[in-house]
Amino acid sequence: xxxxxxxxxxxxxxxxxxxxxxxxxxxxxxxxxxxxxxxxxxxxxxxxxxxxxxxxxxxxxxxxxxxxxxxxxxxxxxxxxxxxxxxxxxxxxxxxxxxxxxxxxxxxxxxxxxxxxxxxxxxxxxxxxxxxxxxxxxxxxxxxxxxxxxxxxxxxxxxxxxxxxxxxxxxxxxxxxxxxxxxxxxxxxxxxxxxxxxxxxxxxxxxxxxxxxxxxxxxxxxxxxx
Length: 226
Prior knowledge:
The protein has helices at residues 25-29, 45-50, 57-75, 80-106, 113-128, 140-157, 163-186, 192-197, 208-213, 218-225. By secondary structure, it is mainly α. The chain starts with 24 loop residues before the first helix and ends with a helix. The chain crosses the membrane at residues 53-71, 83-101, 136-154, 160-177. It is found in: Endoplasmic reticulum membrane.
């Protein structure tokens, strides 16, 4: 299904075009189009609607779920200090998930039709259209689907009494990640801390795992050696 010499028509829905680029996809997707007007992904209005979200929808939908999960943990007999520790552990676990997704899924090199198509849909669009404000956060519908295996995984590695707090912490970590991701694309930070959040490696909210696995970019390593 890869077409030699294929040219993407930006005036048509993109998702099912990019697969035809084959090996040329990697070069194409890393040539950003800096415009706040995002492209159309799908011909279907329904699927197109699901790809567009304002950033504030993420905390609006998921922070109440976080609060509910933590309240469940308290109702199960956990003390407040225990819930806090479990929540911190959940956030910590999320930072590893975040790093793993960015390193081994979001930044893989693809060249097949479906590989290019899926990569563009889940992450490549952020590289191609970095200022598209309605596609810089993960669609809530997709998040809701992924929460089921995430919840089941947490139940496997924790007890029924502690699982809600760990789940709430992990979900809170995700909210922090998505909001931070949006901020880094659309802000012009003046203070040192937010500046250091940019270009730190595969971690978005933390450079911990980049340090652990030695994947900090050269600019960060040079800064640390001064």
